[in-house]
């Protein structure tokens, strides 16, 4: 039997069941016109997936149900598979509120199917991710819990849905997202469903955010499952952006069909585009009649570019921001930011602002102006020296009165304080006002290394409406700069000089770029050290680092250049001082700054924010660390 | 048999197993000296409870295990019950990392007890809160999951721990925190353990944050459980503060002993104080030999004061902040803030700063100075008008160059923009610099109503190192002001004028306090409206509000003054316009501002931050709302 199946890779607008239902009804109409037997929409296609605690609004749940009924009503002569919240108004969730399921609906001819061998006429998610940025267990009652409540095993409830399609009975294995990633769970939903017999087709509806390398991994995992069950598998994912407040995720789509041998026979391309895919699937052969496709790996800088480009475009549109102001220093981060925004929202909607103080070199000022010219962006220079001097003078010359003694005293601004005054003068005094006058917001251009250790000023360069490149390590920022020149613009929009200059905040003469002085972060080493703290699955701590240092395998473990550590830190004392300096900052003021930092556009597996939950508890050193440190320093 | 039991109501320092173990060893020594048979420490007494994702550091887990061994080694002739992370290095959690349990350890004579009828020599948490500020399922594998994995029911695993105490066998029912709050779960841990027989004593070790009214509720729930099982129950909770980044929680202790009739026979007082409580519990009579105590309700403003006082004291100490700067406007929020900090850290460590512009009345300037005098705090006035004028002039007179046309244009600052310029000038230009020079940080004085709708300026009054009163509605701020004068200081430190004046930002002549003009928020109504959006268990939305408005029961539902709605909004059109205005702000710019807001000290059941997860998705109106609106406006 050949089935014509439409893959509704729709853009889901989170929290907007009205808009999503409209999109779905349009796609249903198109699929019907094209003679499809079945259309598949992503997980939570009606409400959206990342909604914070909106799930606690009963009127929102009712609304989702009612829009769901519209979709069911539209299923005449067409099987419509879609995701929605399933509400059992009679039962409670663990929090005592009304019970909600992350549900898979199977509609045909105006009614729901699958209720004859399951407690509800729908299917619910078995494996609910409650790690990384996901909070499924906070909101939804999993099949594992339902089984336990009913005194059954999860396997008892993992049944196929049988329904007539095209005059024949088809057995569908209906799973949701994480159900296909069962490796770390004792319950294997697909295997369990397949064991019940009569499964002709697995359908995985997902709402799976893009992160670098995810699709390559997904293809390995899903391909294996199709092969092992011997049943073809259709994966439908959405596009669009969704966020958790602190972290913004792009959804790439990349819907895929695997035949029973695990080969890819359909792959939605390009990523990040709404599409109604059409596949003819021969169930008799398990999809092997179609020729297998090669699927590209998704872990290069081009994918980062595409995800950020899409994320910037969609996020600015979602919050209604049409105009953007970027403070450009002549350094790499703001240059990459400007080049990204110019592509995403158009150079005519950008205003680039250079804000020199006495510490800014003519070199970087020229580079900033050159960048604006290359990008065809409006440009202005607003110096900050007079204002900074005024602030320091005002504070230092105004008496503070002690009411008890009646005495007066004066505050003193140190050079370090004046560095932060400069940074705040730029962002909070100038950029925020300029952005309002220009009719938009201003950007935060921080990278991930700076963000890790709070090498930034709160209400200064740490601020902005979005930190679009804050999930990129410094070496990725450079790679993106090259990619922008070579592949996106195909000309030198980011001047060579910006790539060659030493990274520097230029907040004092100690950071003079023309003398080769700059940031205290040695990116070729610290990028990789910080990555091990933040981004590794099992996160490294000073104990691990010192252990590897002691064993002479640190560079190999971190993935940085051999010999680098000895060059930077000739002695264990220097190595340890550096390690503790950054560990203290990462766990100390870095946390305080991230609490007040803008949303970050995520591309890695572990962006700061909701995927990197943290408490302001300060740095801790384990006992083994303290002992090893003593040994290395020759103390006892 | 009479048992002498020590309740180790310790201050837990989150993320510091070294310090916590030291505290525990000291208390163990004291308990032994006092002839105790048993000492009980709170949940997660070694590592702390709210640690973000620190649980993903394997070296931290090992460290906690090793400190746990020290406690076990110290249990000669003394039963030591304590909380720690239990690690099964051979098994995986759902996230694929090493498996962790939120575990209850029972140590005596250098070894662990309870392994003969359980998979491990410990007990693990059955019911894991994964709602509000809690993320237990993110980190820990619950007994429910373990049972399912082993093909058992939770009840199979819910067994007492039998151990010899004082020469006799004692059956302990060992549960953790949420296990005692089983009402909304199908598994009832205490009932299940009791059913196994031989239980002489229940012990609930908790790490339960203070929120208003929690203890009264806990006493009702726990008392019922003791009564129903007919077994005495000891509840041990910690003191201290812990945080989730965005939200800071105080822990009140309030450890309690219930006899088998559910009567309280021991109650640790005062709240928020580390103590080693001692009770003699006659197991033969189920604790009924001791006289029952009256326990006060904990829902008045005095409890809010004590929680905030403790929170400010502990939080500033935890982050090493000794000096604090507060911008005082002459309004109620900053006055309450100043009076709170003066008590918590001492007036000598405070610097109060008034920053008038041309819009600030002499009335509020005088009130600000009076407040500083009353509190005996250092005080200074730093006017902002010159700087604000300079910023506006600089921006308006500097040309912006369009690189394509070569043309120049000029930006224009509107009066609304200049309001935000003033607010940022105060906080980001002055307070941040003054705080650095004074050697500390500056506070955010926002209240909960403002925070709900983002009635504040980012990098302006929305900034600071801590928002200590941002979990208080405006009417609670006034109540706290009265409490401070009447009960804490017992004199008028907050001048009467500050309480009487109309709340106003004084950012334009439209907000002139001397003319009775002020904030657009009508607190006697909006406080209660916003509370229904934010704080109700089933959160209200415009659909609910409009429905109640239509039915004439809105004031009753919200709990505000009858007749108020009609006074404020004579027509449905005005009512709806107001409703939508604030709903849009709450879901729109309010979210954007909260993402970058300081940590909030929580006192309510739902502070902003980690207990109120939200996405920047904008406002949504359900279909039923839109229909009802049409009806009320007479549209069709």
From TrEMBL, chains A, B:
Residues 3-283 form the CN hydrolase domain. The keyword Membrane does not apply. It is an enzyme of class 6 (ligase). Deamido-NAD(+) binds at residues 420, 450, 593. It catalyses: deamido-NAD(+) + L-glutamine + ATP + H2O = L-glutamate + AMP + diphosphate + NAD(+) + H(+). Pathway: Cofactor biosynthesis; NAD(+) biosynthesis; NAD(+) from deamido-NAD(+) (L-Gln route): step 1/1. GO terms for biological process: NAD+ biosynthetic process. The active site is at 43 (proton acceptor), 125 (for glutaminase activity), 177 (nucleophile). One of its GO terms (cellular component) is cytoplasm. The keyword Nucleotide-binding applies. L-glutamine binds at residues 131, 208, 214. ATP binds at residues 327-334. It comes from the Bacteria. Keywords: ATP-binding, Ligase, NAD, Nucleotide-binding. GO terms for molecular function: ATP binding; glutaminase activity; NAD+ synthase (glutamine-hydrolyzing) activity; NAD+ synthase activity. It holds the Pfam family NAD_synthase. Its EC number is 6.3.5.1. NCBIfam families: nadE. Catalyzes the ATP-dependent amidation of deamido-NAD to form NAD. Uses L-glutamine as a nitrogen source. PANTHER family: GLUTAMINE-DEPENDENT NAD(+) SYNTHETASE, NH 3 /GLUTAMINE-DEPENDENT NAD + SYNTHETASE. Belongs to the NAD synthetase family. This is Glutamine-dependent NAD(+) synthetase. The lineage of its organism: Bacteria, Bacillati, Bacillota, Clostridia, Eubacteriales. The gene is nadE.
């Amino acid at each position: 039997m050949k089935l014509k199946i439409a893959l509704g890779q729709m853009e889901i607008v989170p929290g907007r069941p009205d808009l999503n239902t409209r999109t779905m009804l349009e796609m249903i109409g198109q699929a019907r016109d094209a003679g499809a037997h079945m259309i598949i929409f992503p997980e939570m296609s009606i409400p959206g997936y990342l909604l914070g605690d909106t799930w606690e609004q009963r009127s929102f749940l009712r609304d989702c149900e009612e829009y769901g009924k519209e979709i069911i009503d539209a299923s005449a002569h067409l099987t419509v598979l879609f995701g929605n919240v399933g509400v059992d108004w009679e039962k409670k969730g663990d929090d005592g509120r009304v019970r909600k399921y992350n549900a898979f609906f199977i509609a045909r001819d105006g009614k729901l199917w699958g209720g004859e061998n399951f407690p509800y006429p729908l299917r619910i998610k078995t494996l609910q991710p409650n790690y990384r940025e996901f909070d499924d267990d906070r909101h939804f009652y999993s099949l594992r819990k339902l089984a336990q409540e009913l005194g059954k095993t999860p396997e008892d409830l993992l049944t196929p849905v049988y329904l007539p399609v095209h005059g024949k009975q088809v057995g569908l294995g209906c799973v949701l997202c994480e159900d296909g990633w069962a490796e770390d769970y004792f319950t294997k939903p697909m295997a369990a469903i397949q064991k019940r017999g009569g499964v002709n087709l697995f359908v995985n509806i997902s709402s799976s955010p893009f992160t670098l390398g995810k699709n390559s991994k997904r293809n390995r995992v899903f391909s294996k499952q199709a092969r092992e069950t011997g049943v073809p598998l259709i994966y439908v994912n959405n596009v669009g952006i969704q966020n958790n407040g602190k972290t913004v995720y792009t959804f790439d789509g990349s819907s895929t069909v695997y035949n029973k041998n695990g080969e890819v026979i359909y792959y939605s391309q390009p990523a990040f585009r709404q599409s109604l895919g059409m596949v003819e699937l021969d169930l008799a052969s398990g999809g092997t009649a179609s020729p297998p496709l090669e699927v590209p790996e998704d872990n290069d800088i081009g994918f980062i570019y595409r995800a950020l480009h899409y994320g910037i475009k969609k996020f600015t549109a979602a919050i209604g921001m049409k105009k953007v102001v970027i403070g450009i220093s002549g350094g790499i981060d703001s240059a990459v930011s400007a080049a990204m925004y110019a592509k995403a929202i158009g150079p005519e909607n950008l205003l680039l602002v250079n804000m020199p103080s006495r510490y800014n070199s003519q070199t970087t000022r020229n580079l900033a102006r050159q960048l604006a010219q290359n990008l065809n962006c409006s440009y202005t220079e607003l110096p900050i020296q007079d204002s900074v001097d005024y602030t320091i003078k005002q504070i230092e010359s105004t008496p503070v009165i002690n009411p008890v003694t009646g005495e007066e005293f004066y505050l003193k601004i140190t050079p370090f304080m004046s560095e932060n005054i400069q940074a705040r003068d730029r962002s909070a005094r100038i950029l925020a006002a300029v952005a309002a006058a220009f009719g938009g917001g201003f950007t935060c251009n921080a990278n991930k290394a700076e963000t890790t250790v709070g090498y930034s000023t709160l209400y200064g360069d740490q601020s902005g409406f979005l930190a679009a490149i804050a999930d990129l390590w410094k070496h990725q920022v450079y790679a993106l700069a090259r990619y922008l020149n070579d592949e996106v613009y195909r000309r030198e929009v980011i001047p060579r000089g910006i790539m060659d200059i030493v990274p520097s905040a230029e907040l004092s003469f100690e950071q003079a770029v023309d003398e080769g002085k700059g940031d205290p972060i040695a990116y070729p080493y610290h990028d990789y050290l910080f990555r091990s703290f933040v981004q590794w699955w099992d996160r490294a701590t000073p104990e691990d680092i010192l252990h590897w240092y002691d064993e002479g395998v640190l560079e190999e473990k971190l993935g940085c250049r051999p010999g680098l550590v000895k060059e930077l830190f000739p002695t264990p004392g220097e190595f340890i001082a550096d390690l503790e300096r950054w560990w203290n900052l990462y766990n100390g003021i870095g946390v305080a700054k991230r609490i007040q930092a803008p949303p970050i556009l995520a591309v890695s597996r572990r962006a700061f924010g909701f995927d990197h939950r943290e408490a302001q508890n300060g740095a801790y050193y384990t006992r083994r660390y303290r002992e090893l440190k003593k040994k290395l320093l020759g103390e006892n």
